Amino acid sequence: MTLRKILLAGAISAATLWSGPASAATEIQWWHAFTGRLGELLAEQVEKFNASQSDYTVVASHKGNYSETLNAGIAAFRAGEQPHILMVFEVGTATMMAAKGAVKPVYEVMAEGGAPFDPDGYLGPVKGYYTTPDGKMLSLPYNSSTPVLYVNKDALSGAGIDPSVDLSTWEKVGEVLDKLAASGHKCPLTTAWQSWVHLENFSAYHNVPFATKENGFGGLDTELAFNGPLQVKHIQAMGDWAKEGKFFYAGRRNEGGANFRGGECALFTESSAGYAGVKKEAQFEFEIRPLPYWSDAEGAPQNTIIGGSSLWVLAGHDADEYKGVSQFLSFLSTSDIQAKWHQDTGYLPITTAAYEQTKAEGFYDANPGTDIAILQMTGKAPTPNSKGLRLGSFDQIRGIIDEELEAVWSGDKTAQEALDSAVERGNQLLRRFEQANQ
Amino acid sequence: MEKRVTFGGWLLPMALLLPQVIVTAVFFFWPAGQAIYQSAFIPDPFGLRAQFVGFGNFEFLLSDPYYRASFWTTAVFSTLVTLVSMGFALWLAVMADRLIKGATVYRTLLIWPYAVAPAVAGVLWLFMFSPNVGLISWYLDLLGYRWNHVLNETEAMGLVVLASSWGRVSYNFLFFLAGLQAIPKSVIEAAAIDGAHFWKRFWTIVFPLLSPTTFFLLVVNVVYAFFETFGVIHTITAGGPQQATTILVYKVFSDGFVGQDLGSSAAQSVILLIVVGILTIVQFRYIERRVHY
């Protein structure tokens, strides 16, 4: 008798538990890659959305770094447990685009969901990265940044250099590096994300192709082309600086940031999103400058391209849930949210409205240098070489580029040898990607 | 006289074997079969479609000079990890075995590192040797040596070997100590009476009698160096610089789970399966013969 009662009670409570979420708001799963301050700001956006309406609850879960989040999403899809929204870094864009049947394009989600949404409100270079050639937005731009030059002004004056010295070209930077090294400075220049800054953005900024077929926008049969004379010249110059102790290589990701923020390095090429960290930690006067270019390069400076992530909607959910997704994405693209995100993080204001709002609020006057990234990226209309990159297996190709660049920094290879080898090895991966996605 | 125990029917022995057969089938044969099957395809990451390529994945791999080089890297890495972790553990065990006072304290302390997960151990060592903020690299800098394992291949290899061996020393230490304590004192005392000094006794009596333990540890440590160290490598070097620390199993992981190239990853697993098979045969046929049980 008692046993039956217990079982009955159990069944009832299980039933109530089960029916619980269904009667309340519909859950929308969002998997992302942010921790720390960025994670907090993201959670704030989610809370705001959840408080603003009662039909849907967005649940944000952290799944590791960018690569790990993408992997978690892919593994979940294979197991039929995929979230509604997956954060994917720009490097994974081609992978996601090729995955027809696994993703539900954002333009479709928005059209069906009926929430207000204007894809043209996004800045051209940002939108272009995630949009098909015929103008259909496949994923929603979330956080975007572009590389800039950070300058430790105290280090320059310490070496007897005018801290407002012209650093607009690599020639001028070279002269400053000479002086810094001559004065005994131990780390005149360091960088984060070497492939992204010194090859991917370098190519766009100098209006030379990184890969054929419009950097992969024109088709899967693209081939790498970053072993051109201009790229070789730049990498060779960096290699020479490394040999002469003027360029300090700290690692493949943003390890060099610690050296710069600690005041050890004078110049630092890094994402504009590094601003918050530098501002918080730097015990010295610093300044943001546009990324330098080679003055003898025709068409430089063109525009730089973005890094960061976008939000992909995965296939296989109910129409009602997609409606919630469309409302959430529409909420994320409002200018209030975007402007706050931009000002708090140093990521670019990715909508025109957010940029105008930030400007009107006087943020750029109060924080000089924070608008350099956006000006540098939007200064000129993008060319086929500066729209962005759309290459399969690009995470792996970056790994190859990292390896080959390391060979240059350590003096094992010349720039020409290393870049030729990187192109050849990378092309093999592109062919495999093409084969897998025929 | 040989004593034989036989079962009357075939049902009972089958039933007794079944659990082991199921475990082996589910956790070994099935995944291994899957790996072999998948190695003939280039699938897309989401598992939506796959291109049949036959031996194409193997051709692609074996024509890659970096992949061929990673066999050598694996050999160097595994040998060093095994030698360092076993050699150091044996030395510590011999010393701890001689202790009379405080032996338990030493033993307990020496076992601790084994409780640290490989990835965490990797991070610990990375912090100490980080070219930017590492304590040890800072002291080395004071001595005039600029440590930068991010660019220097030898330093990178040294660091991952050290980090991989460290936790393993504890494990090996335990087994060596147990092995040492199982050696009859009478044999050693007899040798001592004959006038053999400590190291003479060690090499002629103790070490040979310890050989079953040593052989067991050799097998276990080689397997460890092959398969379980990728957490350390992932956290410290991610296979760099220039693939100097990319061992076979790390490449399986990074191609499969970072690069989403599951076809190549599966083909690599198959190659690894063959390598380990050969290695096991060599160990049991040629090295085990020299073991005295």
Give the helices and strands, then pairings.
The complex is a heterodimer of chains A (438) and B (293).
Chain A: H1 2-23, E1 26-32, H2 36-52, E2 56-62, H3 66-78, E3 85-89, H4 93-98, H5 106-113, H6 124-129, E4 140-145, E5 147-152, H7 153-158, H8 170-182, E6 187-191, H9 194-205, H10 212-215, H11 229-243, E7 247-248, H12 256-261, E8 265-271, H13 275-281, E9 286-289, E10 307-313, H14 319-332, H15 335-345, H16 352-360, H17 363-366, H18 372-378, H19 394-409, H20 415-436
Parallel strand pairs in A: 1-2, 1-3, 6-7, 6-8
Antiparallel strand pairs in A: 3-10, 4-10, 5-8, 5-9
Chain B: H1 11-38, E1 41-43, E2 50-52, H2 56-62, H3 65-98, H4 103-111, H5 118-129, H6 135-142, H7 153-181, H8 185-193, H9 198-209, H10 211-227, H11 230-236, H12 248-258, H13 262-287
Could you please describe the fold and organization of this structure?
- The complex is a heterodimer of chains A (438) and B (293).
- Chain A contains 20 helices and ten strands.
- Chain A has 438 residues and is of the alpha/beta class.
- In chain A, helix 9 packs across helix 11.
- The termini of chain A are far apart.
- The model of chain A is unreliable at 10-23 (pLDDT under 50).
- Chain B has 13 helices and two strands, in the order αββαααααααααααα.
- Chain B has helices at residues 11-38, 56-62, 65-98, 103-111, 118-129, 135-142, 153-181, 185-193, 198-209, 211-227, 230-236, 248-258, 262-287; strands at 41-43, 50-52.
- The A-B interface holds A 67, 71, 74, 77-78, 95, 98-102, 249-252, 255-256, 258-259, 262, 264, 393, 395-396, 399, 402-404, 406-407, 409-410, 412, 425, 428-429, 432, 435-438 and B 42-51, 53, 60, 64, 66, 130-133, 148, 150-152, 238-243, 254-255, 257-261, 263-264.
Fill in the keyword field for this structure.
heterodimer, A: 438 residues, alpha/beta, five-stranded mixed beta sheet, 20 helices, 50% helix, globular, B: 293 residues, mainly alpha, two-stranded antiparallel ribbon, 13 helices, 71% helix, flat
